[in-house]
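Ticket #4471: structure export looks truncated?
Reporter: QA, pipeline team
Priority: medium

Steps to reproduce: submit the single chain below to the structure queue and open the exported record.
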Amino acid sequence: MPRQQRREEEDQAMLKNKRILLTGITGNVGGYFAERLLPDNEVVALARFSREGEEERWRAKGVKTVKGDFSGSLDYVPDDCDYVIHSGANTFPRSFEDGMRDNAEGSALLLAHCRKAKAFLHVSATAVYSENPDPDHIYTETDEAGQNNMGHYGGTKLAAEGAVRAMARQFEVPAIICRLNVQYGDVSGNGTGGGLPSMQLRQLLADEVVPFPKGRSCVHSVLHNEDMFDFIEPCLDAAAIQVPTVNWGGDEFVHMQQWMDLFAELSGKPARIEYSDVFDYPTFRLDNTHRLEITGPCKVNWRDGMTRLYRSMAGAPA
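Actual output as written to the record:
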């Protein structure tokens, strides 16, 4: 029996009437999490809120905001939250120092500050994996990590995993590391939530060439936001002081050409694809065996999910 089903039978209220600290609310992942958590929980969001009106918009929705940086002072961050969902990251660090400070040190400092929490969920990325020369390789959680082409991001995200593991043991906080592949979903009113497919759809709708990474399989384990949110509760339940790692990807392998063909069909516009070095983006097919043991199967079929994404952007009825 999947852990998710056991959890549902044992406790239906794990993420109800709780105080949850969330980072990354201004991004695709954290913003979606906040929208889903808000109706039943108190959500405290730590973020820079650098775009005009962003903090005010979230406050109006009921989020308790803390303007700051998890790699800086945490004096105004409550230390008594029930759970921490750490989806914030510096995805384009300008230097190794910036990446280590924000991604590695910041994650360690945040966990140390929130050591009273029942569990700490750290959203990592498949960018930590070393690319296998076999384009059809399926990546497991024990695969080699640490070498790819994503600048300072992949390496400092891997360092963040080590920092979380060390702090979890030091302060005896149950934690889990979730390596996210390509997420996608309906685009919200402020333009977030759609992930990589939404960026490519914008290019198609604007009659622009859509670059694909040259020399790569272009196949991903795409994960819809709804399934990703449903993973949170069973993954928090699976958190442990000896920190487990789990791939966060969907159950279907999908080529980028497949979702672009679908967007072309829905829009009536041709998908102008060009393989080039301009978009040098690694692609990973994830082994979902361990994740299935924790969460059970995904519910959203990729074609249905991508169709909904298209309609959320193109204004067509759902």
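Status: closed, not a bug. The export was complete when the record was re-opened. Leaving a note from the reviewer for reference: The chain has one domain: 3-184+223-250+286-298.
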